[in-house]
Batch of 2 targets.
Target 1
Amino acid sequence: MQTENFIVEEIDISDVLVGVPRVALHLLKEQDSAFKLLSSLSYFRRDILIVEWVTNVFSSIVSIACQRSLKQMIQ
């Protein structure tokens, strides 16, 4: 796909979640065979939440910095 100023590559992500069951983590039974999957999925979810938190913090910092610079320009 090409836009006005740059080219965006289309990435096929259809098989990313092939091994992930389509059921909530808390509904999976705690068996020895499922324990490895449960721990991997819970670590994955924790990492996603950490990235989301860091992104929100960074976004807030940038937003506050923009507001302060705008206030200084007005004064």
Note: Residues 52 and 67 are 22 Å apart (CA to CA).
Target 2
Amino acid sequence: MDWVTERLCEEKHNLSISLEKLKQEIVSLTDSVADNAIARAKKSIEELQRKHLLQAEEFVNENTPGKRNPDV
């Protein structure tokens, strides 16, 4: 009976260690996913800003008398 009790205590300890490692891996993955999502969002925002600036410049050039777009 003592052997069974000792074995159960060992297994409980091993399970606790495994669960703690799993918890740390999940936190790490969550951070990684969050960083990746933030990077993608930042890139998308920057692309939208570039497009918006180009469209604004084109609008100004098209609607300003005597001013021409030097790239055209």
Note: The chain has a mean pLDDT of 86.
